[in-house]
């Protein structure tokens, strides 16, 4: 099992211990262990179908693990931005109304969340008229309403162009600075989130490797990502997944080094 790379003295908001998830006979995650500390930004990468969404859904309690557990202090508030959310485009609904659902939320709280999400002027806009980037900001605002200690983002920039996703991730960093919340996010855009992440976890049914972004950046696959654009990104997501290898281990400084 991989060892974790957090400083033992820091507070852990949630711990996933030896988690396995299956749908019928299909086991999608096996023996996954990880932890998220207060205030840190952790990015999960992995190929399609590698269990990333299932992991986040287990953390919020929407999926029951077949083995293992999610340990979460009862006081820890979690905000969740799903991968996608369908809203009937024929339904007239303002952003403020959407954010007030399902229970009444004060307009001051709505305005505060929209401001933190970087879209303070959208309260009266119609949901059906939002651009993709604005829609994501509104979903972010919805997750921020409960003033979470931990924000979970599931490919929150899907469908946005690169400047749009870069702006979204900058907003996430701003939210972290302003609120102190930790962030656990799934992204296919490691090159975009790299600088904002304290730690990167590569998932493919299990934790393949994890470490500081520099460790992942020093991998040949990551250099290929910078050098060859999309093809490099594909190379990155293919790495480690078709052969056995040792995990990256922590040294006493909390840094990782390849044990291969
Ligand atoms: N509710 C479900 N019932 C049955 N199978 C499911 C369910 N949810 C997910 N799966 C399957 O579990 C596997 C992992 O799915 P999951 O969405 O967790 O992966 P992912 O890494 O988030 O994928 P992607 O990058 O494509 O979003 C997939 O094979 C998927 O078809």
TrEMBL record:
<dbReference type="InterPro" id="IPR027417">
    <property type="entry name" value="P-loop_NTPase"/>
</dbReference>
<keyword id="KW-1003">Cell membrane</keyword>
<dbReference type="GO" id="GO:0010043">
    <property type="term" value="P:response to zinc ion"/>
</dbReference>
<keyword id="KW-1278">Translocase</keyword>
<protein>
    <submittedName>
        <fullName>Zinc transport system ATP-binding protein</fullName>
    </submittedName>
</protein>
<dbReference type="Pfam" id="PF00005">
    <property type="entry name" value="ABC_tran"/>
</dbReference>
<dbReference type="InterPro" id="IPR003439">
    <property type="entry name" value="ABC_transporter-like_ATP-bd"/>
</dbReference>
<keyword id="KW-0067">ATP-binding</keyword>
<keyword id="KW-0547">Nucleotide-binding</keyword>
<dbReference type="GO" id="GO:0005524">
    <property type="term" value="F:ATP binding"/>
</dbReference>
<keyword id="KW-0813">Transport</keyword>
<dbReference type="InterPro" id="IPR017871">
    <property type="entry name" value="ABC_transporter-like_CS"/>
</dbReference>
<dbReference type="GO" id="GO:0016887">
    <property type="term" value="F:ATP hydrolysis activity"/>
</dbReference>
<keyword id="KW-0472">Membrane</keyword>
<dbReference type="InterPro" id="IPR003593">
    <property type="entry name" value="AAA+_ATPase"/>
</dbReference>
<dbReference type="GO" id="GO:0006829">
    <property type="term" value="P:zinc ion transport"/>
</dbReference>
<keyword id="KW-0406">Ion transport</keyword>
<feature type="domain" description="ABC transporter">
    <location>
        <begin position="14"/>
        <end position="229"/>
    </location>
</feature>
<keyword id="KW-0862">Zinc</keyword>
<dbReference type="InterPro" id="IPR050153">
    <property type="entry name" value="Metal_Ion_Import_ABC"/>
</dbReference>
<keyword id="KW-0864">Zinc transport</keyword>
């Amino acid at each position: 099992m991989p060892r974790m790379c957090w400083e033992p003295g820091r507070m852990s908001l949630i711990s996933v211990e030896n988690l396995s998830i299956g749908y019928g006979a299909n086991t999608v995650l096996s023996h996954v262990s990880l932890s998220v500390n207060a205030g840190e930004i952790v990015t999960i990468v992995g190929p399609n179908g590698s269990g990333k969404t299932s992991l986040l859904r287990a953390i919020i309690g929407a999926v029951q693990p077949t083995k293992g557990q999610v340990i979460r202090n009862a006081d820890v508030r979690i905000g969740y931005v799903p991968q996608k959310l369908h809203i009937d485009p024929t339904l007239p609904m303002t952003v403020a109304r959407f954010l007030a659902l399902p229970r009444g939320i004060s307009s001051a709280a709505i305005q505060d969340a929209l401001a933190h999400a970087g879209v303070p002027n959208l309260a009266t806009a119609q949901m059906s008229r939002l651009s993709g980037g604005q829609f994501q900001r509104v979903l972010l605002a919805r997750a921020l309403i409960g003033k979470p200690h931990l924000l979970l983002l599931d490919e929150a920039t899907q469908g946005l162009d690169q400047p749009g996703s870069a702006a979204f991730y900058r907003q996430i960093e701003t939210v972290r600075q302003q609120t102190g919340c930790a962030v656990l996010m799934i992204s296919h855009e490691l090159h975009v989130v790299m600088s904002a992440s304290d730690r990167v976890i590569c998932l493919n049914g299990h934790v393949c490797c994890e470490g500081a972004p520099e460790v992942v950046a020093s991998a040949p696959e990551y250099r290929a990502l910078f050098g060859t654009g999309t093809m490099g990104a594909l190379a990155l997501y293919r790495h480690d997944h078709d052969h056995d290898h040792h995990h990256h281990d922590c040294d006493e400084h909390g840094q990782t080094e390849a044990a291969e």
